[in-house]
Amino acid sequence: MKILIDNGHGENTPGKRSPDGIFREYKYVREIAEAVERELKSKGYDAERIVRENVDVPLAERTRRVNEICGRIGTSKVVLVSIHCNAAGNGTEWMNASGWSAYTSKGMTKSDTLAELMYKEAERNFAGRKIRKDYSDGDADWEEGFYILKKTKCPAVLTENFFMDNKQDVSYLLSLEGRNQIVKTHVDAIIKYVGQYE
């Protein structure tokens, strides 16, 4: 199975940083995406980042890249994970919202299977930290009409890895422990997903 990794935003995206400017989402999620890709490849999996540029690649182009691969090798042989960090405000002041969450498109699909596996790994790795859940449709993930989830043909999950405008979350994100646990959560969930569908 082909595992596609998407890292959110770019160095030219306005905002998307901690109020003190120390944390930049585009830079951080690229580092996490690179680590996830590297770890999966080291274990023998076919992983590839779809955005290697530092500038923001439009959602339509990200989606086109994913769907081109789906068309080439078959939708059932592709899965996408889009890695982001959350924010409660506009980046100018510290906020109280915190925690980790995962999103899928609306309706029950294979994406929900991957999201559930992500939540299980998140519970294991982020012990004592807030895991944000929405059980209104019977499972933990949040359902949204995000373009990258709605327009890609393969199963797709978007993760929001804590809040870049929460001081405690930023400290955790920037710590070695935080980085390692975020990478591990993604890698372990993806491997379990691939094991179910290969």
| Strand portion | 15-25%
Major sheet characteristics = 6 strands, mixed
What is the topology, as strand order, of the major beta sheet? 2-1-3-6-4-5
Q: Number of folding domains?
A: 1
DSSP E strands, number: 6
Overall morphology: globular
Radius of gyration: 16 Å
What is the residue-averaged pLDDT? Answer: 96
Query: Unreliable segments (pLDDT under 50, ≥5 consecutive)?
Result: none
Overview features:
single chain; 198 residues; alpha/beta; Aminopeptidase; 6-stranded mixed β-sheet; 42% helix
Could you describe the 3D structure shown?
The structure is a single chain. With 198 residues, this protein is an alpha/beta fold. The chain has one domain (2-197): Aminopeptidase, CATH 3.40.630. 42% of the residues lie in helices and 17% in strands. It is built from 6 helices and 6 strands; from the N terminus they run E-H-E-H-E-E-H-E-H-E-H-H. The chain has helices at residues 25-42, 59-73, 110-125, 147-150, 167-174, 176-197; strands at residues 2-7, 46-49, 78-86, 100-104, 142-143, 156-163. The chain has a 6-stranded mixed sheet with strand order 2-1-3-6-4-5, sandwiched between helices. Strand 1, helix 1 (25-42) and strand 2 form a beta-alpha-beta unit. Helix 3 packs antiparallel against helix 6. The longest helix has 22 residues, at 176-197. It is globular and about 45 Å long. It starts with a strand and ends with a helix. The relative contact order is 0.21. The model has no long low-confidence stretch (mean pLDDT 96).
